[in-house]
Amino acid sequence: MALKTLSTFLSPLPLPKHYTLSIFNPVSLNIYRKSTPLSCKSTHSHSPSQLPLSDTKLLSSEPEGTGAASPTRGDRFLERQQADEAAKLLIKEIKKTKKKTKKVLKVNTVTACCYGCGAPLQTSEVDAPGYVDMDTYELKKKHHQLRTILCGRCRLLSHGHMITAVGGNGGYSGGKQFVSADELREKLSHLRHEKALIVKLVDIVDFNGSFLSRVRDLAGANPIILVVTKVDLLPKGTDFNCVGDWVVEAITKKKLNVLSVHLTSSKSLVGIAGVASEIQKEKKGRDVYILGSANVGKSAFISALLKMMAQRDPAAAAAQKYKPIQSAVPGTTLGPIQIDAFLGGGKLYDTPGVHLHHRQAAVVHSEDLPILAPQSRLRGQSFPVSSKNGMAGKFNSNGLNGFSIFWGGLVRIDVLKVLPETCLTFYGPKKLPIHAVPTHEADEFYKKELGVLLTPPTGKDRAGEWRGLETVQQLQINFEDAERPASDVAISGLGWITIEPRRESLGISESNFAERTKELHIAVHVPKPVEIFVRPSIPVGKAGAEWYQYRELTEKEEEIRPKWYF
Gene3D superfamilies per the record (predicted)? Predict the structure, then answer.
C-alpha cells in the first residue's frame, strides 16, 4: 500500500490548508503499532472564537475512532455541511421570531372600538361617542374582552334616543367630539387602493339622493354588487321585473363595474339569500366592504345578511352576537367595524355612512328625523284628488294651474302651466302632510302654518330657526305619450313626485290632444342644500306594470348589462 494512502488512512483528523505538521516521517510509521499522536501548529494565530463554526467543532471534538474505525474525509465533509445547514436554519428561525414579535406589538397598539358604532373607546368625555365607564373598561381589558363593549351612545340609540355625532358637510352643528363628515369619508379613501369586493347599498325610496354619484372615487376599480334596499316599502301590486329593469337602466349610464343588482328587504329578508350567495361566489378571499350613504340601511342589511349566512356558516352565527347597532339617526356608524363572518378567509366590514349635504336629513332637526323615514308601504297621494275626498271643489276647470302644493314644510310645488288633466302623485313618508293653496296665498300660508300644519320643522321654536325654502328651480318637462307618466321629480332624502298628463281621465279626443302643447311647467322650492332630480318615472303599483316599456337591447348590450335578482 502506498505511503500516501496509509498516512491518509491512519490520520485521525483531516487538517485545514493553513495547518502544517511539525514532526512527520513516513518511513518510521509502523502499521502494527498504535498511531502516533500528531501535534499541529498553525502558520497563522487564530483564537477559537475566530474560527468558522464547522472548523471549531472539528478541532475540539475527540477522535471517533482509530485505524479502520476513524471517519473518512467524506464523513467529515458531510458533517461540516450538516453543521453549516444547521447554522443557517438557526439564523432563519431567529429572524422569524423577531418578525413575529414585531407583528404582535403592532396588533396590541390598535385602539379598541365599540362594536356597535366603531367609535374608539374612551373614558373621559361622557357625552362623546365611545364613552365607557372606567370600571367596565378595566374589567373588560383585564379579560381581553374589549371587543365586546357597547358604548353609552349606542345603548341610548338602541332605546330609541336620537343622538347625532356627525358635524360639518351633511352633518349637524355642535356636540362634543363630533366627527366631521369629511373625516368619515377619509376613513374610506383606502378602498380604492385595496383589492376588495364592494357591496353598495341604495335606498329605493331615495334612489337618486342615496346613490353616491362619486362612488368611483371611493371604490376605485373594485367590483361592485349593487343592493337596492327597502323594496318592501313600494306600493302594493308593484311588478319587480319592471323595477329591476328600471334600476339596471339607471346604473348602466354611470359606467360602474357592477357585477349584479339585487332587490332586497332587510325587514322581510327578501333577496338577502341571493346577495349572500353572490358574495360567497365573488369574494375570492378578499375583504367585503358594505358601502352606502348615511341612513341607507347598512347596519340593518348586515344583520339580515348574518342571519341568512348563519344557517350554513358557523362564523356568521357567532358574529351575530356582536352586530352593529341600528338607528334612524344618520351617522350611527362612526368607524369601520370588522366582522368575522367568513370561514374561508376575508373579513366583512360595516363602514361609516357617507354624509351627503344635499339630502333633507342634513337640514332638519335630529328629533324630526323619524318623520322622514317611512315605516310602512308607500301610498301615493294624488292632486287633484277625486270628489270622494271632498276636495275636488278646490280646483276649477283649469286643473292645478295657479295652485301651490306644500309637502310638509320641506317642499313647495308651484304649478305654472300644465294640462287641465295633469295629476301630481306624491310618494314619501306618510307623516308629511300635503296642503294645496292658491299660489298668490302661498307665501302668507307658509309663514303662518310653518311648524303647525306644515311640519317638519315641528313647533314654532324650531320654525323660528328655520331658514326657509331658499332654492327655487324652474322645470320644463316634455312628454310624448300622455298615457304614461311624463317623469318623476325626486327630492333628495325625501321621496318623489310622479307627474302624469292624464288625458284619459276627462276623455279628450286625439285631435284635441294633438293640438295641445306637450310641455309641463312647474317650480320647485326646497331648502338651500337639497338637490332636485328629474328622471324617468319608476314603475310602481299595478298601473306601473301596464305602462312600463322594456327597451330593446343589442347582443353587445345583453352581454355587458348586469343581471338583476329578486
Answer: P-loop containing nucleotide triphosphate hydrolases (3.40.50.300)
